């Protein structure tokens, strides 16, 4: 059954049961299905159908989720805009080929329309279903294209691997925080409804929302987990905590287990690849806190050298993956697609190794990237923006561990002759050109950049202070 069929079928099966709690209201499964029917009718009248594109803006609400279900039912390809995008990034996304941008006003008009009756799922397995945007820290977000065949697997319980089935058993009341991992959150929203649970879209921070709404599970990036563990909130009702979106230090996992008990799950994946590996509560006490988990059964992992050749067993290499749910390519960007897709395999550009027990460990990245609060920020893109300012001659960017955001961006600039850069203006330039996460936490003026033995800029020397 193709998406959104499993979700619509679950909603129709228990129309009086609650589906979503949001803003002090409880939306029943029947009411959510009615929202989907009204949105589908309005989209049809607007000429939307198979092969047409819909971009949804704004925060996660019952209405914004309903319009995505409706667009998928009509066979459209759907994407969600990131709230942190700069105007330049949003404009670039719009050029990728969307027939409708669902703003607040458009959404209000759709949900106010008449009930169009039963919704038929019109998509074909090979049709484009979803465009998942990368963080856009390169200046222009890349859109990872996924077919309905691949996209639908996440919502079919019969295709869930054993670890995911065990995790989903905890999804009675899922606290869905709309944040950097929006696509992941939307996936768990749909799975919760298929499983028979209730989705909670909170207006409070996690420390208050979890006990207030009696949440049994939530998904957090490491920085938010840090903050949650620093509170004295009553978290005893949680049966599972899913961590992802950024590197997780073993110490943080151990601290979380000490506070919450054996309920911590960690997912490793990418927008391009989907979920690659999962670390379960049973793995942490067994001494695997330094790993990102075992690859899922449907995921093949190959460790390769710079030439794309397999490395010996146990050796480190670049992680290549092949799975039924990975992207078909970057939408409208064949050259970029060719850089990462080779003979059915995806280059993750992450480095790692598989240990003797089959656990995947990450050791680094082939790309010069910094992950800030779950958002991938590219050092080269930030350097280009800074170096483009007339007061700057050279710019160098490094990442360093940060207690609040996991990693933080730190920039070093060499002034142009006779110039004195305004550091605040430089930070604002990056924020406007790329994203809030890309804005440097510190900008240091240096006379010259240190060089390594080969004569190249020595970023390790910059990072040490």
UniProtKB/TrEMBL annotation:
Residues 10-331 form the AMP-dependent synthetase/ligase domain. Coiled coil: none annotated. InterPro entries: AMP-bd_C, AMP-bd_C_sf, AMP-binding_CS, AMP-dep_synth/lig_dom, ANL_N_sf, ATP-dep_AMP-bd_enzyme. Residues 382-456 form the AMP-binding enzyme C-terminal domain. SUPFAM superfamilies: Acetyl-CoA synthetase-like (SSF56801). This is Class I adenylate-forming enzyme family protein. It comes from Nonomuraea typhae. The lineage of its organism: Bacteria, Bacillati, Actinomycetota, Actinomycetes, Streptosporangiales.
């Amino acid at each position: 059954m193709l998406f959104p069929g499993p979700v619509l079928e679950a909603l129709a099966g228990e129309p009086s049961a609650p589906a979503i709690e949001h803003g002090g209201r409880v939306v029943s499964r029947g009411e959510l299905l009615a929202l989907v029917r009204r949105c589908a009718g309005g989209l049809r009248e607007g000429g939307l159908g198979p092969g047409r594109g819909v971009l949804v803006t704004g925060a996660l609400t019952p209405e914004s989720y309903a319009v995505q279900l409706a667009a998928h039912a009509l066979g459209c390809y759907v994407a969600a805009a990131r709230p942190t995008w700069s105007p330049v990034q949003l404009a670039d996304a719009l050029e990728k080929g969307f027939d409708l941008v669902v703003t607040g006003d458009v959404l209000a008009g759709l949900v106010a329309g008449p009930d169009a009756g039963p919704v038929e799922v019109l998509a074909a397995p090979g049709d484009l279903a979803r465009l998942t945007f990368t963080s856009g820290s390169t200046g222009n977000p890349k859109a990872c294209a996924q077919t309905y065949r691949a996209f639908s697997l996440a919502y079919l319980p019969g295709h869930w691997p054993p670890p995911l089935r065990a995790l989903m058993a905890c999804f009675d009341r899922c606290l869905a925080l709309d944040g950097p991992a929006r696509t992941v959150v939307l996936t768990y929203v749909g799975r919760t409804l298929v499983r028979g649970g209730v989705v909670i879209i909170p207006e409070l921070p996690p420390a208050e929302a979890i006990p207030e709404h009696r949440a049994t599970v939530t998904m957090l990036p490491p920085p938010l987990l840090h903050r949650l563990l620093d509170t004295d909130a009553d978290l005893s009702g949680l049966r599972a905590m899913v961590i992802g979106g950024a590197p997780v230090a073993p110490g943080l996992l151990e601290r979380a287990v000490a506070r919450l008990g054996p309920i911590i799950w960690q997912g490793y994946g990418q927008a391009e690849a989907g979920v690659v590996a999962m670390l379960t509560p049973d793995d942490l006490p067994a001494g695997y806190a330094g790993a990102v988990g075992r690859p899922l059964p449907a995921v093949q992992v190959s460790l390769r050298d710079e030439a794309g050749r397999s490395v010996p067993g146990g050796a480190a290499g670049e992680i290549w993956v092949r799975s039924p749910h990975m992207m078909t390519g970057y939408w409208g960007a064949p050259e970029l697609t060719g850089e990462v897709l080779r003979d059915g395999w995806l280059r993750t550009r992450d480095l790692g190794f598989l240990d003797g027990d089959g656990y995947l460990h990450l050791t680094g990245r082939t790309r010069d990237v910094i992950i800030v609060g779950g958002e991938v920020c590219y050092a080269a893109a930030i350097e280009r923006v800074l170096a483009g300012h007339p007061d700057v001659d050279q710019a160098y960017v490094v990442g360093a561990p940060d207690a609040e955001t996991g990693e933080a961006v730190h920039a070093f600039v060499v002034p142009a002759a006779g110039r004195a850069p305004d550091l605040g203006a430089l930070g604002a330039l990056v924020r406007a050109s790329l994203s809030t996460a890309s804005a440097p936490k510190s900008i240091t003026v240096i006379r010259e950049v240190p060089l390594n033995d080969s004569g190249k800029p020595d970023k390790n020397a910059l990072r040490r202070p």
